[in-house]
Amino acid sequence: MLDNMTERLSLCKKYMIIDHDEDDMLISSLLAASDEYLEGAGINRDISPSQYDLVANAMTLEAYETRGLTKMVEIAQTPAIRQRIVQLKLRSNYGGNA
Predict the structure, then answer these.
(1) Are 81 and 35 in contact (CB under 8 A)?
(2) C-alpha distances in angstroms, 49 versus 8, 35, 67?
(3) pTM beyond 0.85
(4) What is the 3-state secondary structure (H, E, C) of 13-65?
(5) Which of the two ends of the chain, N or C, has the fewest CB atoms closer than 10 A to its terminal CB?
(6) Helices 49-65 and 79-93 sit at what angle, rounded to 10 degrees?
């Protein structure tokens, strides 16, 4: 499980196919905003860290690509992301058994 934000940033950048460091602060803040959104939605990362990170990375990529044009709430409504958020919420609410 990746708790270290530096490790999570590195994997998020690989997911986003970004190999430069110029936008690390921006990507870190977008990743943190994705985490805050998911936590605010009642999702416990400990239930399924790999699925949680996939959703957070997808939200971060979408926010990065559309920065200034969309809000995190709009990004969370993307069908693929929405489906994963629902699954994570179910698993968080039922102790990982959904």
Answers:
(1) no
(2) 11, 12, 26
(3) no
(4) HHHHCCCCCCCHHHHHHHHHHHHHHHHHCCCCHHHCHHHHHHHHHHHHHHHHH
(5) N
(6) 150
Side-chain half-sphere CA neighbours of 77 within 13 A? 5
Residue 88 in contact with residue 48, Cβ under 8 Å? yes
Give CA–CA dist 96/90, Å, rounded.
8
As given in the structure block, the two tokens for residue 15 are 């997911």
The one-letter amino acid code at 5 reads: M
Count CA within 13 A, CB hemisphere, residue 85: 22
pLDDT in tens, 41-85: 888 899 889 999 999 999 999 889 888 776 767 777 888 788 888
Helices 5-16 and 49-65, interaxial angle, to 10°?
60
